[in-house]
Specification:
11 helices; 3-stranded antiparallel β-sheet; alpha/beta; 11 strands; 32% helix; 8-stranded mixed β-sheet
């Protein structure tokens, strides 16, 4: 197997995103991660495939030097599932926007999660339809002023983390376009995970929704409004590193270490690999102004996968079948000769 570098995963295509688009950062993170994935899984780059739907983010397969498939709107998860089942040795990466995955593709999205197909879903969330010029999406904020909601949306948005975990998802992680190192880390963990890995990337659309996530991504706010969860580490955050997440009764609470009798011992330790459905749901659902938004791997539990179960069933049926070739099939029922 070749010793790949980032250059091996950069295509010769001109990147056609608006200058300043958050998608550039996620593309860079993927290009930097794929050499590590090939090394970790001991595979050739010919075993890597990138699938997308329709939208700005879905142009990404053109910009990575791998096999790829630019599919139709909302159908990326179905095609990615088919690829993985047909060839379980592939490393399959799905690229979808919040509209592509959660609106027209919502049904395919939740069933890929429910089945636990071993694919890696990169969900670009800029809270807007960018390619079609600024209509509100399933993740647009309540009251957002857009081309199709000139007086403000009247719909509550989807929360991708809640959606994934409620669909019995085995892996959910989150990053921001400005956090390249976190994006690379969760991509590598997603590749390592055996099952459906969903990564939400909070990205900025500089043209139609500039400042999409400014409340947490702005430099002056980030330390107090985000928390980076690491396996086995205390949930501590803040510019002074003196705030933490505690479980008081059945609810999460932000505490200040050294105040109100709270110490570091009261701060929760993150365990993404424990099947703690309720806690993982609460962590994914944290949002301002009362809570920081959680970044990193929030949930990563083991369960049987769809493609493994399909393969097991096929092998079991073949072993017990009396039909081993077409001739056996033709003679398996009532037969007669025509003279």
């Amino acid at each position: 197997m070749a010793n790949y570098t980032i250059k091996d995963f950069k295509s010769n295509q001109e990147v056609r995103w608006c200058p300043g688009c958050g998608d550039y950062a996620i593309l860079a993170a993927l290009q930097k991660t794929l050499p590590k994935v090939c090394e970790m899984e001991n595979i050739d780059k010919s075993k890597v495939v990138v699938v997308s739907g329709i939208g700005c983010s879905s142009r990404l397969p053109y910009y990575v030097s791998t096999y790829g498939f630019h599919s139709i709107h909302g159908r990326a998860a179905a095609i990615a599932t088919g690829m993985k089942v047909a060839n379980p040795y592939l490393s399959v990466w799905q690229i979808s926007g919040d509209g592509d995955a959660l609106a027209i593709g919502g049904n395919h999205f939740i069933h890929a999660i429910r089945r636990n197909t071993d694919i890696n879903i990169c969900l670009f969330n800029n809270r807007i339809y960018g390619m079609t010029k600024g209509q509100y999406s399933p993740t647009s904020k309540l009251g957002a002023i857009t081309k199709t909601s000139p007086y403000g949306t009247v719909e509550n948005p989807f929360d991708p983390g809640n959606l994934v975990i409620a669909a019995k998802g085995t892996f959910f992680a989150r990053s921001i376009d400005t956090e390249l190192a976190i994006s690379e880390e969760i991509m590598l963990e997603a590749a390592r995970h055996n099952g459906c890995s969903v990564m939400e990337f909070l990205t900025n659309c500089v043209i139609f929704n500039n400042g999409s996530h400014a409340e947490i991504s702005a430099k002056e706010n980030k330390a107090d409004r985000t928390i980076y969860l690491r396996d086995g580490e205390k949930m501590i955050f803040g510019s002074q590193r003196n705030k933490g997440i505690a479980l008081i009764g059945n609810s999460l609470k932000v505490i200040t270490i050294g105040e109100g009798g709270f110490t570091e011992k009261d701060v929760l330790t993150h365990h993404p690999h424990r099947d703690d459905f309720g806690l993982h749901m609460m962590l994914a659902n944290m949002k301002g102004p009362d809570f920081p938004i959680a970044l990193g791997v929030i949930r990563a539990i083991e369960d049987k996968t769809y493609q493994d179960e399909v393969e097991r069933q096929v092998n079991e049926v073949k072993a017990n079948s009396k039909i081993h070739c077409v001739d056996d099939l033709l003679r398996s029922g009532s037969t007669w000769e025509v003279k």
